[in-house]
């Protein structure tokens, strides 16, 4: 006699934010015991027992939804950059190729786009709901479309970072915001709204590590300017003055003065660069990293400011010829 007991539906798992989706757990069983176990695990998810198909997809938590939206943005940026690299101008092809590769690295770091089932929905079960596919570029996508995807992504990542309740995830999302701001600047400097820190707008002293990084820049660029000439001297003086203003404003607001008592130059120069240029590159790269390391959970406006400041430091490092990571600049999970 064929059993009349309902067969419970597969239980979709949810990937954790900031990491790769976990292995999906599928439970099979018959009878009241199996059904009770499934109901206990899925809690409030609406399942239609007896048919094997759910009435609706499970709703991921807010943190997972935010991570998924950033992953979908990375897919869009990668596909748009591919189109631009293949059919755009020669000037845009190189940067677009780098952005496409970086976006794939970003997608991997985010754990990919959220999938509700262990495998694709069976063709024999057309009633089983699925998620919308990630948006990709049209065949005629332009540099303007890529810039739009990057600028919107930078705003999106900064917002998610400031609202994240987990510090490591907040730093990852902040790094994405910096990467997409720098990607915008590489294609269209006018489209990138990057102002950096302003001494007059500081309301709280900088964290010790950030203060030390700016003070190290001040010292390094003053040393560089003393030996440089022409445009290089002018850039060094401007950078030193900018960093000095931030340091002075932070110290005036109080807080612990954790500045270093000595500032060592690099022990070796970058290939093809002088020791002074190498010093300038490393000093600004250190500022970028320090800004992102200081990003904390539920950081609010402070996180948005750190993203902008890190991007500004990245631009200054690039102006000295530094090779700033295109995918996850300054990111560390520690």
What does this structure look like?
The protein is mainly α and 334 residues long. It is built from 9 helices and 2 strands; from the N terminus they run H-E-E-H-H-H-H-H-H-H-H. The protein has helices spanning 31-42, 62-87, 90-110, 143-163, 167-187, 208-227, 230-252, 275-293, 301-319, and strands at residues 47-48, 53-54. The chain has a two-stranded antiparallel ribbon. Strand 1 and strand 2 (53-54) form a beta hairpin. The longest helix has 26 residues, at 62-87. It is globular.
Brief synopsis:
Helix content is 54%, strand content 1%. It has nine helices and two strands.
Percentage of residues in strands: under 5%
Shape estimate:
globular
**Numbering strands along the chain, what is their spatial order in the largest sheet?**
1-2
| Major sheet details | 2 strands, antiparallel
Binned, the helix content reads 40-55%
Mean pLDDT: 83
Helix tally equals 9
Gyration radius, in Å:
25 Å
Helix/strand order? HEEHHHHHHHH
Distance between the termini: 60 Å
Structural class, please?
mainly alpha
Number of strands: 2
Could you name the ranges where pLDDT drops below 50 across 5 or more consecutive residues?
1-54
What is the topology?
Elements: H1 31-42, E1 47-48, E2 53-54, H2 62-87, H3 90-110, H4 143-163, H5 167-187, H6 208-227, H7 230-252, H8 275-293, H9 301-319
Antiparallel strand pairs: 1-2
Characteristics of this structure?
mainly alpha; 1% strand; 334 residues; single chain
């Amino acid at each position: 006699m064929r059993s009349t007991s309902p067969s419970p539906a597969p239980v979709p798992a949810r990937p954790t934010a900031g990491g790769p989706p976990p292995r999906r757990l599928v439970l099979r069983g018959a009878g009241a015991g199996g059904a009770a176990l499934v109901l206990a695990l899925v809690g409030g998810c609406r399942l239609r027992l007896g048919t094997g198909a759910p009435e609706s997809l499970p709703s991921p938590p807010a943190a997972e939804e935010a991570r998924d939206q950033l992953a979908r943005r990375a897919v869009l940026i990668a596909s748009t950059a591919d189109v631009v690299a293949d059919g755009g101008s020669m000037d845009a092809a190189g940067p677009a190729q780098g952005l496409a590769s970086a976006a794939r690295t970003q997608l991997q770091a985010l754990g990919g786009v959220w999938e509700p089932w262990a495998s694709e929905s069976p063709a024999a079960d057309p009633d089983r709901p699925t998620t919308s596919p990630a948006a990709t570029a049209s065949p005629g996508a332009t540099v303007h479309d890529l810039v739009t995807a990057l600028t919107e992504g930078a705003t999106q990542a900064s917002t998610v970072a400031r609202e994240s309740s987990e510090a490591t995830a907040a730093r990852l999302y902040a790094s994405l915001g910096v990467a997409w701001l720098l990607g915008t600047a590489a294609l269209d400097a006018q489209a990138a709204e990057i102002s950096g820190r302003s001494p007059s707008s500081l309301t709280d002293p900088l964290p010790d590590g950030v203060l030390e990084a700016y003070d190290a820049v001040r010292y390094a660029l003053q040393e560089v300017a003393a030996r440089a000439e022409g445009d290089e001297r002018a850039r060094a003086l401007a950078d030193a003055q900018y960093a000095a203003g931030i340091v002075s404003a932070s110290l005036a607001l109080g807080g612990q003065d954790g500045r270093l008592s000595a500032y060592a130059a690099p022990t070796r120069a970058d290939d093809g660069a002088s020791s002074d240029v190498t010093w300038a590159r490393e000093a600004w790269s250190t500022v970028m990293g320090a800004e992102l390391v200081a990003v904390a959970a539920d950081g609010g406006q402070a996180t948005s400011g750190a993203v902008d400041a890190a991007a500004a430091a990245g631009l200054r490092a690039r102006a000295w010829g530094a090779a700033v990571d295109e995918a996850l600049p300054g990111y560390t999970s520690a």
